[in-house]
Amino acid sequence: MARVDLKQVKKVYPGGVEAVKCADLEIADKEFVVLVGPSGCGKSTTLRMVAGLEEISSGEISIGGQVVNDVPPKDRDIAMVFQNYALYPHMTVYKNMAFGLMLRKYPKAEIDKRVRDAAEILGITELLERRPKALSGGQRQRVAVGRAIVRQPKVFLFDEPLSNLDAKLRVQMRAEISKLHQRLQSTMIYVTHDQIEAMTMGDRIVVMLDGEIQQVAPPLELYHRPVNKFVASFIGSPPMNLLEGDLVAGEGTLCFRDRSGTLNLEVPANRRAGLDTHVGKPVIIGIRPEDLSGNTAQQVQAGHGFQAVVEVVEPMGSEINIYLSVGGKAVTARLKADSTPEENKPYVLDVNMANAHFFDVKTGLAIR
Ligand code: ADP
User: Fold this and answer.
1) Distance from residue 79's CA to the centre of ligand 1 (Å)
2) pLDDT tens across 284-336, in order?
3) Nearest CA, atom 11, ligand 1
4) How many A from CA of 347 to the centre of ligand 1?
5) In principle, which of 40, 41, 298, 319 could form an S-S bond with 208, CB 3.0–4.6 Å?
């Protein structure tokens, strides 16, 4: 098993697209790291550079302490699982899994053992004689993972491996890959655009945007301490509410006021750190939907709540999402299942300001 290090890695494609600007990343041995970000942010390019399928324009990549810039993919001791599985249609499942080892001239008995062990782990033993077209999407996915397992690589690379599966199967495979990681105790780098996949699977998550790493942190740290507005809004579903307004100091108080005059929220003492330099200036407040709750008496608590008109109510069973308009800006709240908001009617919300985030209007950076 091995650690993976990227030092100032850059990728400029022919034609000038700067797909990865300057990536510094240290992935520990046995770590499960997820690269996440919107389409085109450079996740796949980063993974493909680790695999050796894309040359790097500058910088250094090492696997297990060895610089691999000039090492061809087959000698990097990695195994990659692709989005489209890339199975050979004319080969049985057994042969699909065995083929890489056959090419490397492993003894037949060793190949057989590895294929059968991997099939056992993945629960596909009874499928070994089938061809890919006789398999469901989820089964094909397992074969693709099996093909990676038999290699016993230092590092597993996954490129959006679940995106062709339906929602239910995706959730199931997510858990299976996490279990696999615990069982194999190997280094895994996993690319997805799905922040829920990232949050549920990664030991650490690397959030990317426009070819740049925005933040590298364990899931809950990303959620609770996003470094900037982008990470704050990308991680979490429904996304964090972001509203522009001003920080206004009163007698011993500090308030956030939005431009429409609807919001006037007192910043609690424990949230004031770093805000002094922004008093009297515009800031962006970030409030997660779950930090808004229905006021039981439906009365606005001055400094701690507001009233707005509900536009859409989405009952989810375990909770209710509501969409409101505040000064022309959309706001989402996640309410308890027994709340009774009604569409096109006013509704009073309390704000848990202890969890409020603040961002600089110009830089988008978190103010701390
Ligand atoms: P992601 O995986 O996050 O969707 P990619 O790494 O695939 O992003 O792409 C990053 C950027 O590089 C995008 O702007 C994409 O259009 C560009 N790109 C990807 N592959 C190539 C290529 N072979 N040639 C030129 N540009 C490319």
Assistant:
1) 21
2) 999 999 999 999 999 999 999 999 999 999 999 999 999 999 988 999 999 99
3) 19
4) 45
5) 41
